[in-house]
Amino acid sequence: MQPSEIPDDVRSEIDRRLDAIERAEAVTILYACESGSRAWGFASTDSDYDVRFLYVHPRDHYLSIDIATRRDVIEIPIEGVYDIGGWDLPKALRLFAKSNPPLNEWLGSPIVYRERGPIADRLRALAPTAYSPRAQRYHYLSMARGNDRDFLRGPTVRWKKYLYVLRPLLAVRWLEAGLGPVPTPFATLVERTVDDARVRRAIDALLARKTAGREQDVGPRDETLSTFIANELARADDGPLRSPQGSGEKGLSPCALIRLSGSSLAVTRPDRAALDALFRDALAD
């Protein structure tokens, strides 16, 4: 199944659930998309539908002395294959200004269930000027290291865990090449960052097994992929990974800083006035 091929009955059910959330929470959902494996392009036959959305309350909700204590997320208990949750627009905009990788991936999802007004398009237009390659690199490298440590050290592995290490490692390569915000589809990352034919064949075989099987399927370690992952982790950073907030160099070792050179090293500053205007326009619509 291609990323855009969501069955009509599933789309209808997701629309129904989004409508119910709007009524129950008295909000307007501005944008809703698929996230996770279906958006990345490697869903298993039994993968959940991970629906994420941005919403806004009526204007008076934000004109309250209690606004700081009000929840800014909507979390719906998982029911069957439907995992649905969303963020209030101000929360999303604050995270956008901090170069939040999951939000950038939502905006780049190839599977969109709902898009009202120009908000999502305006955020996409701002993305190249509002992301930090250093902060995003830290996020993806931390993810790759954690998943490798927790899931890929035994003689057998779950196929999905290979992909949960490979995707962030290729995102690191993308960022180091200065290619801009990380794209959501895994195929785009592979196409632009993997030149080794043996690794490409191993990734293709892994994707075939993952998409034809179930989420919990396991198999023996793939030496080509395991070697590639070990080499990439060693190459990506020659020292302890530090938080971007922990040093003036955003947590990168000297070798990493050399790789992130030229335009790819430039730290962009989000246009907060533009984000404020976007929020006000959302309330006015």
List the helices and strands and how they pair.
Layout: H1 8-25, E1 28-35, H2 37-40, E2 49-56, E3 73-75, E4 82-88, H3 89-97, H4 101-107, E5 112-115, H5 119-126, H6 133-151, E6 156-158, H7 159-176, H8 186-193, H9 197-212, E7 218-220, H10 223-236, H11 254-259, H12 272-284
Strand order of the largest sheet: 3-4-2-1-5
**Main beta sheet strand tally, sense and closure:** 5 strands, mixed
Classified by CATH, the class of the largest domain is Alpha Beta
Low-confidence stretches: 239-259, 261-265
Radius of gyration: 20 Å
What would CATH call the homologous superfamily of the largest domain? Answer: Beta Polymerase, domain 2
Query: How many helical elements?
Result: 12
Name the average pLDDT.
Answer: 89
Percentage of residues assigned to helices: 40-55%
Number of domains: 2
Terminal Cα span: 36 Å
- What is the general shape? globular
Q: Helix-strand pattern, N to C?
A: HEHEEEHHEHHEHHHEHHH
Which CATH architecture of the largest domain is right? 2-Layer Sandwich
Strand content: 5-15%
Any overview of this molecule?
With 285 residues, the protein is α+β, with helices and mostly antiparallel strands. It has 2 domains: 8-128 and 271-284, Beta Polymerase, domain 2, CATH 3.30.460.10; 133-265. Helix content is 49%, strand content 13%. The chain contains 12 helices and 7 strands. The protein has helices spanning 8-25, 37-40, 89-97, 101-107, 119-126, 133-151, 159-176, 186-193, 197-212, 223-236, 254-259, 272-284; strands spanning 28-35, 49-56, 73-75, 82-88, 112-115, 156-158, 218-220. The strands form 2 sheets. A 5-stranded mixed sheet has the order 3-4-2-1-5, sandwiched between helices. Strands 6-7 form a two-stranded antiparallel sheet. The longest helix has 19 residues, at 133-151. The chain is globular, with a radius of gyration of 20 Å. It starts with 7 loop residues before the first helix and ends with a helix. The model is unreliable at 239-259 and 261-265 (pLDDT under 50).
